[in-house]
Amino acid sequence: MLGSFDAVLLARIQFAFTVSFHFLFPAFTIGLASYLAVLNALWLKTRDHKYLDLFRYWVKIFALAFAMGVVSGIVMSYQFGTNWSVFSDKAGPVIGAPMAYEVLSAFFLEAGFLGIMLFGREKVGDALHMAACAAVALGTFFSAFWIISVNSWMHTPAGFEIDAATGQFLPTDFWQVIFNPSFPYRLAHTVTAAYLTTAFIVGGVAAFHLLRRRRRGEETSPATRTMFSMAMWMAAIFAPVQIGLGDAHGLNTLEYQPQKVMAMEGHYESHEGGAPLYLFGIPNDETQTLDYAFGIPKLSSLILKHDLNAPLAGLDTIPDEDQPPVAIVFWSFRIMVALGFAMLGIGLWSLWARWRGRLYDTPWLHRAALVMAPSGLIAVIAGWITTEVGRQPFTVYNMLRTVDSVAPLAAPAVGASLVAFIVIYFAVFGAGTFYILRLMSRPPVFDEPRLGDSAKGPIRTAGITPAPQEARRHPAAMKPGE
Question: Which segments carry the region annotation Disordered (predicted)?
Fold first, then answer.
């Protein structure tokens, strides 16, 4: 059955599945690591126990999410050598070094200080423990820095030459490779998205406990209130920042990847006197039309060119073989934008409630925050799909086609591994996600148990104390009949 599928398509689906699954965890832990560092700093500064309780509450969730992110990320490197060996051979001289730097500067930093962050508060002192928290947060940022640099180079390649004999990309200027034209925009947009993702998950968990305590007529703990307040501050501050960064990123994309923006906007036809912003439509690649289109005249030109009457080229200027799949890009972009404005709405609503002194007594705000808890995760996946599918049919934009990057594998081999990945991922990471939700379902309490205290089983393979056993007494000390 799998032999009837295209091997290239199956390889793309497999990579899309694994990278999307993996991306969910860093999108959460990048922001959560910084949140934990802030909580720890506030505890050390104020000695207010609610900050320590929140730190202990969220560090358990962070440990599990971080572990799943690491495990799911290992698979990506294997796929470069199996399904995408041709791409690895040709682009390896350029992207190999930044990916190695990610391990050396980011993963080693995280791994080196993670144990101190999780278990070392009472062992190393406050100053070193705070340094470990900051190092882990910094490590997550460095990881994003290098990975986004590599990915951005694939979209806006720079600082290289192509070897005429081997067809390999050879670096000529590593500064241009790393700081390629789209990298600053992608890094800022991605890291801010991670912070918003964490903010809405934290806010959703706090809203859940606020609603449940309200329904039961119980008083909400100071830690839960603080958790909700901090999350809503992040939403109110970073949601408008993210919209501004998205606009700047879009303008950069228009300059370097115009057909991606054409697909995002649904512009099959060029518009000489101002292009409309289509809010709805059904892209039809066969007829090169946007069926049932509904839009606002000239608004797209205003957004992209800051001029109502500015002309915008359409996909009719791009050869058919160089056009991305419009429908996927068109709809994933709209999902991302809609969620971004919904986040902005929650942030503004929280400011209004805070100004009225009702931040903790507005049930509909809490219900909205609970519904929006996974919105950051959905938005980052939608944005990732927009970015990566919009680059097609190239792996290295305008330089190396996807069909020329895949390894010479048969469709059944790729399909079988894809099925195995799906089954294993949903079993293993589904169980981990279920346990994270179980942890979130319990509110933070005063004197929250430490990570080690909350463990049900051993945290070491061999242990440090002997297992309980029957007392071995000297025969002379035994009672008669024993």
Answer: 451-482
Residue 263 near residue 364, CB atoms below 8 Å? no
Are the CB atoms for 162 and 169 separated by under 8 Å? Answer: yes
For tokens 């205290």, name the residue: 453
Please report where in the chains the tokens 């005063």 appear, as a residue.
Answer: 446
Asked if residues 209 and 220 have their Cβ atoms less than 8 Å apart, the reply is: yes
Here the tokens at position 99 are: 């990916």
Is 77 within a domain?
no
Q: Which of 129, 138, 146 is nearest to 109 (CA)?
A: 138
Q: Is the pLDDT of residue 264 over 50?
A: yes
What pTM was computed for the model? 0.87
In a domain, 10, yes or no: no
Quick: pLDDT tens for 317-376. Answer: 888 888 898 899 999 999 999 999 999 999 999 999 999 988 888 899 999 999 999 999
Cβ atoms of 400 and 244 within 8 Å: the answer is no
The answer to whether position 380 is within a domain reads: yes
Kindly state whether residue 76 falls inside one of the protein's structural domains.
no
> What is the count of structural domains for the chain?
1
Range of the domain at 203: 191-406
Cis check for the bond before 98: say yes or no (omega within 30 of 0): no
